[in-house]
Design a protein that fits this description.
The complex is a heterotrimer of chains A (196), B (364) and C (424). Chain A is mostly helical and 196 residues long. Chain A has seven helices and no strands. Chain C is of the alpha+beta class and 424 residues long. In chain C, the strands form three sheets. Chain C has a four-stranded antiparallel sheet, with no helix packed on it. A three-stranded antiparallel sheet of chain C has the order 2-3-4, with no helix packed on it. In chain C, helix 2 runs antiparallel to helix 4, helix 3 runs antiparallel to helix 7 and helix 6 runs antiparallel to helix 9. Classes of the chains: A mainly alpha (196), B mainly alpha (364), C alpha+beta (424). At the B-C interface, helix 4 and helix 7 of B face helix 10 and helix 11 of C.
Amino acid sequence: MMRLIPLLALLLLPARLSAYPEFQQFILTNSGTKVDCALCHANADGPEGLKEGQLGALKGEELERLATSRRAIAPGQKVHSPILNPFGNELILRLGRSALAEGRKNPAAMIDALPEDLDLDRDGIPDKTELREGTLPTDEESGRFWRLFPHRFKQNLFHIGMGVLATFFLLYGLENLLKAFKSRYRLQHRRSSPPQ
Amino acid sequence: MRLWTGVAAFLRERFPLEKMNLHDMVEKKTVPIHKLRWAYFLGGLTLLFFSILAVTGLIMLFYYEPTVSGAYDSVRYISHQVPGGSVIRNLHAWSSSCMIACVFLHLFTVFFMKAFVKPREITWLSGVILLFITFGFGFTGYLLPWHQVAVNATKVGLQSIGAIQDYLPGNFKDLPGQLIHVIQGGDSVGQATLSRFFVLHVVVLPVSILTLLGLHLLQIQFHGMSQGVDRPTGKSEAFFPDFIVNDLRVWAVFFVVMFIIALCIPFESLFGYPLLAPFDALGSTPDGIKPEWYFFFAYYPMELVPFWVILVATTVVGAVLFFTPWIFANTSRRTLRFLAFFAFLYLVVVTVFGEPITLLIKGH
Amino acid sequence: MFDLFFFGVLPYLALALCLVVGILRFTVKRFSYSSLSSQFLEHRTLFWASLPWHLGIFAVLLGHFAVFLFPGFFRALLADHRILLAFEATGLIAAFISLIGLALFTVRRVFSGRIQSVTTTMDLAVLVLLLLQVGLGILTATLQRWGSLWATGVLAPYFDSLFRLQPDLALVKDLPFIIKAHAVLAFVIVGLIPFSRLIHMVSLPFTYIPRRLQIVIWNFRRRKDLVERAALEDESRRQFLRGATGVGIGAVLIGVGTLDKVVPFFKGPDLTKEEREELLSLKVKKLKATAEQKALELERMQSETLFVANLKDLKRDSGTYFIDYQMSPGLAFLDAAGLPLLYSAKCPHLGCTVNNKAEGGLVVCPCHVSHFRVADGGRVDGPTPTGLRTIPHLLKDAKGALVTAPEAARLGEYQVFIAKGERS
């Protein structure tokens, strides 16, 4: 019973970093996709709480990492925040925390500021596009399928080519085998009946 | 006594054992050629997708772990870590949808070509049972990845059985609840449910589908292809090898397309990502929980009309499906086409536009 | 010294012999430009020897010439190990197919009495040389991998130097013995072409490849039937062979393409230490969560009351989830008086878990959008037949004593419980 009693003290740390619902709202109006906090955070319910990847569950070393990442006001600092996922950390590296906080007023401009070649999961969709459309920038299988298709098609061209070739040869072979059975059958049929 | 001789005569006519030889069942058989000849390939296409499903399913069994704690991670392991696992899994997912689509089309074409009349009643009946088994595959397989949509959609599906109890007389009120309990193996969807669905999906249903498929194919070979049109052209091609060769070509094309799609479009990219998070018994259900698209035809009406309407409709449709060979024995192909068209229209509209229609009617 | 003769002189000698004698033979005895057919004398084994041999060797030679003619292109192409694998596998299989044909040829030449009478010493010599050559080729492919890379990297420049009449022996000096032997034997065979039945390979045009087999038969009464039957037999054999070739190539392609994947699939991924740690820690976490869940179940069996939350943690607009005695989710809110409000979070419609965020005093079931009032759990709209089931609560103070009359001032120290069997 006692283990369920929360470690509330941790929630009362100064300079609370809350989840940014403005971004979720922007994504919803922009793409019609309803996303949760797992887009950037470690936990789908955001940073506040007692569960895995939330502020209330952090332990000694993680708190230090949290403190370091909170000092990353300017861009260019590599952080490993325990409440963020790799994409959230990447955002801090690229933009810095102050720009992120500013971005809440104008999410579109902030997302535009992200570099075109940033693609964490290497699925061929730039992370700024993934962010706009509300698909996970950290999962190579998440993305609008018409964007995933051309990239994966190019990636798998060899297998597709070999697959087509193999299917063609198998088909050709099987067809001829079937016809051969038929010819054999006709031959047998001829043999059983006396020649005219 | 007369009943038994009747049954025996019926069976003798449906199982003409004297035809059970290569000559009658393969060499002599022909397939008619006419405008609707494409419909003759739909059954075979279903078989192709079933074969892909069987093979890929078997391969995935090597890694899948049917436990509440391990299922989600083992599925992720298959699609993200195991080399080639992603394409296997996507082939499985895409093929399952394609198989269902083919089954639907097969059902409709057989219906409006009036291919179910004497002596093909058993072909039709076994086909209807195969349809239900296929749905069973879809329903049980949906749960196995154990993510939010999977578990919650399964819960919804099972609970809808429970809604029947309001329409049962006093003594039977407990029955649906008991039934759910038996299926779930407990008070709620949990480990017992996962184990049961797993066994159903990989052992029970495959065995039953193979058995029935044998019967289905045997009947088709016994009775040959039905003419399917009112005015046969008189043209036909030999079943062996011409039709089979064509069938193989269709298979090859569809296989290649399936292969490319499985490689290039992850099936799960069609879902929003929060839906695919691991199931959390303590968290809330995320938005947009839906069954697979092939259950939409029953799912969206359930939101709109009183449950008893659904109940009556389901019973009627089920009964009509089972007794089609006798109900429509004397109906003309034109009428059948008319009926099939409307049923098909209903399916397409509800499946494609079900969500906007529901929102529109409910005014959200 | 040996290199100088075998790789500096022999090639030119062989080529010269081939050209000069070939042209002489063409002008003097034009009709000998063929392989003397023995199909008339024996046709069963011949068929199974001739077709595999010619199919196989045709593919193998095509591969050799292609690589020697376009070394740059093939070097680039074969840089992809999958293509290299497919190329080598196809070549090796073709070589084995031709070896089977060759073996049957030999058996036929040696053991068939009829054939013996038309077999010359040169025929036997050619057979032996070809057997040796194919054998060496197979050894090259299996022992000196990768043959195609030797060909593009070393032999192609060497042939190039041969044709520029400046044989570069340095290139072949360090070649493995098997490859050297293979090359030398090739020169010898080229030299023998005009002296043997091998000459038929230059009898242009090549239309005899796709055309039907030429059939020689006895001329007697039932010949029409025989011709038809033979034609049918021939057709079915061709179809069989075409079928086998197609299935064979398809199987090789699929084999190479999928083995490349199937073996790693069953072997499992090669994970880094970090990845394995991550997977394992995830596993441990999940098992812990499962154990916790089971512990909750056990707790529900054993204890008479269940802890829900501290009263001060409850909010009016955001519910706290808890697990009730039926192991279904419940929601705890705060009412206007600061006392707890407990509901089952299981939607009465189809059992989805209701959202915990209240907007405008309403919570929503996300599955079919039914709204409920937070104040009393009642139904507002949606397909749900009833409102949320309320769950009676108990309050205990810090010492664990049951509170029957809560005092407003001490609300902060109370804890919320539910009692067993409490279902309204």
